[in-house]
Amino acid sequence: MGTTGPGSWTRSLALAVAGTLLAATGCAGSLPGEDGDAVVTFAVTRASGGDMGAIVERFNEENPDARVRIVYLAAGADAQRNAMVQDLQARTGRYDVLYTDAVWTAEFAARGWLEPLATERFAGPNILPAAAATGMYQGELYAAPFATGTGMLYYRSDLVDDPPTTWAELIAACPIAEANDMDCYAGQFARYEGLTVNATEAIASAGGRIIDEDGDVVVDSPEAREGLRFLVDGFREGYIPKAALTYMEDEVRLSFQRGELLFMRNWAFAWPAMQEPGPESRVQGKFDAVPLPGLDGPGTGTLGGNNLALSTYSDHKAEALRFIEFVQSEDVQRRWMAETNTPTSWTSNYEDEELMAAAPHLVPQRKALDAVQPRPVSPRYNDVTNAVQKHVHAALTGAKTVDEAVSDLQEELEWAVKGA
Amino acid sequence: MTARSSTPGRVDPGAAVTRRGGPRRGRGERAVERGLAFWLLLPTLAALGIIVAYPVGRAVVRSLFDDPIHGAPAFVGFANYAEALWGFERLDFWNAFGNTVLFTVVTVAVETLLGLVMALVMHRAFRGRGIVRAAVLLPWALPTAVSAVMWGWMLQPGGIVNALLGTEIVWGGAEWPAKWSIMFAEIWKTSPFVALLILAGLQTIPPHLYEAAAIDGASAWRRFTSITLPLVKPALVVAVLFRTLDALRMYDLPQILTGGANNTNTLSMLVIQAATRELKQGYGGALSTITFLFVFLCAFLLIKAIGANVFAGFGQAEGGARR
After folding, report:
1. b/e string for A303-341 if b means 16 or more Cβ within 10 A?
2. Residues A404, A405, A408, A411, CA torsion sign
3. Whether residue A120 sits in one domain with residue A200
4. CB contacts < 8 Å between A and B, how many?
5. Disruptive mutation site among B277, B281, B283 for chain A (greatest number of A CBs within 10 Å)
6. Which of the residues A17, A245, A251, A410 would you substitute to probe the B interface, choosing the one with the greatest number of B C-beta atoms within 10 Å?
7. What's the number of domains chain A is made of?
8. CATH assignment of the domain containing A254
9. Would the ipTM clear 0.90, i.e. be above it?
10. Per-residue pLDDT tens for A35-80?
11. Which of A277, A368, B104, B135 is the most exposed place for a label (fewest CB within 10 A)?
């Protein structure tokens, strides 16, 4: 027995039933608020940070022959992925261009859902190499890099003169926090995707890796233990507050902007939010950001970001590629950066002085993007991140020692990527 | 119910009607009626087949296949089941199983007691009863996801729960605080439901029974144990049954509150994790089939253990009330 998909007769029955239902409600195959003339559908999260609708409008004005309609997906990453997976599994080709998370590339590509893209066209020399890496799988480009970003160390510039470049220096600065009745350091340590990011960064900053370029699990190494120990010791010795076990991006930002934290690991989005005038933030003008610290020197951040991918099942690939090229173009990216104050993939925009003056944190961000390591790349990424979260969280809460956590993680990851 | 209450010696209005109408109709007429009934039921049966039987059947069949990244799944028999029960994933599975059972037993026990007390309070006539009833029902009216987010905020380290208790517990930072916060939020949310069902039972008890007992000199405690409890038992059993089945499928509250951290995964969370996040429909199908069988077994045992004599008692109670 080779097939398990629904048999052809059940499929046609299901189609007939669905068709009847749709016809009965008078909306067969259409989407609410649809642009009837559109040939390309762009599926994007409604929480992309900027105005995607405006970009689409501008494209449509210039390209009346390749009109794009926008479909807003849920804000949460899981829900976005579910919507895309459902469309791709059903092979409808309803979504032509997908706004994908950096960590979905490997899985979507391995399942044959994404059309390979021309590297020179979509990841040429104008594109940051770090951002381009998140669109690659097994040496081919499957998603055009767009939004990118890595973690940075935010610090209170009114209290700390020389920002730390190593963990030892960071820990040595903690008495300043104590003297000011603050906590010293926090990142995202709740059990969710952010914990995988923070754990990957800690392990990479000590010279370790979770999964190497060949797809082999290599987390059981002295370097990985050393990296994890920085976080585990933080909770044990108190330079990371226990409350950080429940922190996601916004919780830790709120703590920092209330003046309760000396150091914080966070993304670029935190900068404009904390600079906003008003009583919400007590730290305007009192903080700065630098690349992450590491074990023996500067640390290694990991990459977040969103790319533009083309569905294999699209019926309008040429038009879709033109749209991807437009969204990725220098001008669109510059406007996006000015609008959102978040980093994107076009290199030359970081040399635009006007832009950098308006968003000064993008200068250290650009620097940090030169020393990054992607999150583990695997078509079984969900299994991988789930295992990382489980064992690292257990180590942080003290339920497991670092050694137990690392060897359990090695064992579980080997199992997870097997046959992938 | 109908079968039981038509035992000799008891008057069953339904049975009487049938008997009265019976002799006047011919055999052929009844056959026609039965044929008509079949045709009238057919659309419903077809709809149920499409929306219930087919998906469940597919999931069970799918659970016998593996989950390759690329290509067609291959038949692997019961390997997915073995995987969960004693294979590599057994620790996750049995932890989630244990959590599910723990959450169910603790929350249903506490909810039943609390619900009974709340129902007794709501049943009494006093000034402001309407307000008390509305206030008690409020937690049940909130969507679970909303109340989970709300509890998440209140249970933050600097949140109101710690402020009121004067503690500095990180509720999401260790196993037992996390488990208790889930169970507490669940009890807070669903006790009103139990109370409502029990209240419905209380309102069917005729007041003259209490009056007669009071005249006979029975104490309040005696009236409670000899009249209220036995007569409200059917409603109580229904409440416990509903709640047990519901709690065994618990998903949204722990998912939002802890995300499974600190060993708080439930079986349903594992199913979602495997089937929709990891896209392992075979393994996920096996997990959901196991969960389904377990819930089914629990329901069966519950009805066997407490259901049977209660439903018998229900019939007697009704008969008594009518007399």
Report:
1. bbbbbbbbbbbbebbebbbbbbbbbbeeebbbbbbeebb
2. negative
3. no
4. 80
5. B277
6. A245
7. 2
8. 3.40.190.10
9. no
10. 667 899 999 999 888 999 999 999 999 999 999 999 999 988 888 9
11. A277
